[in-house]
From TrEMBL:
Signal peptide: none annotated. Residues 29-85 form the HTH lysR-type domain. This is LysR family transcriptional regulator. Residues 145-328 form the PBP domain. GO terms for molecular function: DNA-binding transcription factor activity. It comes from the Bacteria. Transmembrane segments: none annotated. The lineage of its organism: Bacteria, Pseudomonadati, Pseudomonadota, Betaproteobacteria, Burkholderiales. Pfam families: HTH_1, PBP_like. SUPFAM superfamilies: Periplasmic binding protein-like II, Winged helix' DNA-binding domain.
Amino acid sequence: MVSPMKRISIAPQLRFRHDGNDLPLDKVLSLLTEVQTHGNLQAASQVLGQSYRGAWGHVKEVESLMGAPLLTMARGRGAVLTPLAQRLLWGQKRLQARLGPLLETMASELQTELDDLLLQETDQLRLFASHGLAVAALVDFAGRAGLPIDVSYRGSIEAIAALAKHECEVASFHVPIGALAEPVLDQYMPLLKGKSYRVADVASRRLGLLVARGNPLGIRTLADLPRTGARFANRERGSGTRIIYDLLLAQDGIDPTTVAGAENIEFTHAAVAAYIASGRADAGLAIEAAASQFGLDFIPILTERYCLMFPESGSESPHLQALLEILQSGEYRQAVHAIPGYSEGATGRVTPLSEAFPSLG
């Protein structure tokens, strides 16, 4: 087993600046999160290992700087977050959902540069991946096992193109199961046709419409978006989900220009969910796990395969073999099983590209 490595990480941070004061909001946001969970400041401070007096004092300090209350205290009813506090928490969630994968990619790139300068071992497994919870768990498992892996989160087409140009050793993509499989594979065809690749199944997962809890607009299908005037949170072009969205619209004869807000672009499923949960959009196309994460309703549309792909010529790489061992382990399969909307039925299966997707053979 490779020993765990020293790694660079980058994390987004909210700060409040006013009249020469520059206050990080991490501590108060942690307190507000626990107050929201437990309903009072006493329990929140205990969970975080702080004294009640210290927690109260910090909340009052931030309130003083911001000029508005964060908590409403009521005898016998504990503490309730004010609209300002709620908006700050949603801002933090959206920040993490939108920037988290990007910052993880930047951290990997910076780590490689630092390793080069420090003359450290840089024989890493480069993975270009479409962001998702199962692949994020796989990267986490690899990190804990000490496997040197350099992950860059990209859209499916960009990831496959990088593999073809030898910019990475492993790429990920996702394909619907059923009628839309061939139209989606047609998008990948120029990059994959006749390639000697192998495909490793990571998971299957449900994709559908995300809407606010209770579905106030009564949305059931994509056709309801123009009818209701629902504001849509879209994905970037080149992402697998955007390809599926465009195909679904064409399949149902829906003019894309009739969907309000479709120019609102987010780069991950979680970012789409956070955008809807914060009230800035009414619907989006994303995985069920993102709906669960942000307390949204989920309307299933299809199930898709999420896969890794690598050249036959590199299949004997020790790093790749170590990654596949993790993928096929019972512990990892249990982790996939625990993600809402994910299934581990085919997790770890490895087949030639021509067998996994005969039309690409």
